[in-house]
Amino acid sequence: MLQILDDFPVILASEDYRHGKPAPDGYLGAAARLGARPERCVVLEDSRAGIAAGIAAGMTVIAIRAGNFAGQDQSAAHVIVNTLDDVTEALIEAVAQRAA
Questions:
Q1: Which of 48, 43, 95, 54 is nearest to 75 (CA)?
Q2: pTM score > 0.90 for this model?
Q3: pLDDT digits (tens, 9 = 90+) for 22-72
Q4: How many angstroms separate the CA atoms of 80 and 68, rounded?
Q5: DSSP structural state of residue 5
Q6: Contact, 17 vs 27, CB < 8 A?
């Protein structure tokens, strides 16, 4: 067991909201539970539906190529990176400022 649940103040599953991706419900629900404004949130996604959901929620979206096993179009994301290792604090700040 990884013992990391304490590192996540909010855990949301598809059973916790009515409409799945590409609807923004899940992302908006997570932001609300965290007390965060959607425009201050960053979404890391690999699927077209997830990217659409993040954008519909008004969030900055970073697509991750490494999880895109089905070869879905990720071009709607604000930026596309190869792996999670490429997601840095500096990248998030730069992308969020461009998306605003």
A1: 48
A2: no
A3: 999 999 999 999 999 999 999 999 999 999 999 999 999 999 999 888 899
A4: 11
A5: G
A6: no
Find the helix or strand (DSSP H, E) in which 56 lies: helix 48-56
Cis peptide before 22 (omega within 30 of 0): yes
Query: Using an 8 Å Cβ cutoff, are 61 and 74 in contact?
Result: no
Question: Please, what are the domains in the chain?
Answer: 14-99 (3.40.50.1000)
Half-sphere exposure of residue 64, counting CA atoms within 13 Å on the CB side?
14
- CB contact set of 100 (below 8 Å; sequence gap of 6+): 39
C-alpha to C-alpha distance for 50 and 23, rounded to whole angstroms:
9
Closest CA to 97 of 42, 55, 46: 42
Residue 63: strand pairing partners: 45, 80
**Neighbouring C-beta atoms of residue 53, cutoff 10 Å:** 24
